[in-house]
């Protein structure tokens, strides 16, 4: 059997993707249905999640779910609804994150914006992952979880609510990977660079800092996300942070060197 032709086992695997209404989450959720995996598309925005489901390669495998994951009751409802719709969730992707505004620097960001950023990224991510893990452990089933973190888990972004939430998420990935590995549940981080999706208002001038010469697209993330999620392709990968950034993190925002006439 070809490894790459069958990265998933749709007979016993099913996925839940948060933030699936837009951007990177949408691209990953749609790609999962393209691989035949029943996938719950969860988002706070009804219109975008409906459109994302309709535009999936196999809409019949895509289940829309609408709710505000800043609320723990909504997370519990999502867990119950996902189980009812697709059965045991074996693959979990946490991409939901509130919009970020450049004006929310350290001296300006208000308490509510700070709390919401942490609630959606960290609190919801932890709550959903832990409950899904408990179910998998009880069923003696393997699983694979993927969290969208950021280069700004390590580097300040002038948005402290965002960078601290992503730093917490990066450590959560490692904590969960260490604890859940013995139960066959792998937990990894996907670290995007500058991706022209909804969460990032891309300045095209940024491309000059990127060795591969262009901003990323949400579709640039989906193949690597699927590779890391797949228990066949990445069976021995856990606790890893997979950077997909066109080399942006190599430049540290300095101009690349002038190599002269080679
Ligand atoms: N785009 C980038 O350059 C970039 C870079 C680094 C990290 N990331 C991370 O990747 C992930 C996806 O980024 P994106 O650019 O696709 O973002 P996006 O804004 O396009 O998508 C995020 C989705 O999350 C949903 N969402 C927000 N709050 C929610 C809530 N309370 N409950 C449920 N859903 C909610 C939004 O409606 C939206 O559909 C995010 O975690 C982001 O921080 C993105």
3D architecture notes:
- The chain has one domain: Rossmann fold.
- Helix content is 39%, strand content 15%.
- It is built from seven helices and seven strands, in the order E-H-E-H-E-H-E-H-E-H-E-H-E-H.
- It has helices at residues 23-34, 46-54, 72-86, 111-139, 160-180, 218-229, 248-251, and strands at residues 14-18, 38-43, 62-66, 91-94, 143-148, 185-192, 241-244.
- It has a seven-stranded parallel β-sheet with strand order 3-2-1-4-5-6-7, sandwiched between helices.
- It is globular.
- The structure holds nicotinamide-adenine-dinucleotide.
- Nicotinamide-adenine-dinucleotide (NAD) binds next to helix 1.
Question: Biggest β-sheet: count, sense, barrel?
Answer: 7 strands, parallel
Output the radius of gyration.
18 Å
- Provide the CATH topology: Rossmann fold
| Class by alpha and beta content | alpha/beta
SS summary, helix count: 7
What is the number of domains? 1
The CATH superfamily label reads: NAD(P)-binding Rossmann-like Domain
Helix share, percent: 25-40%
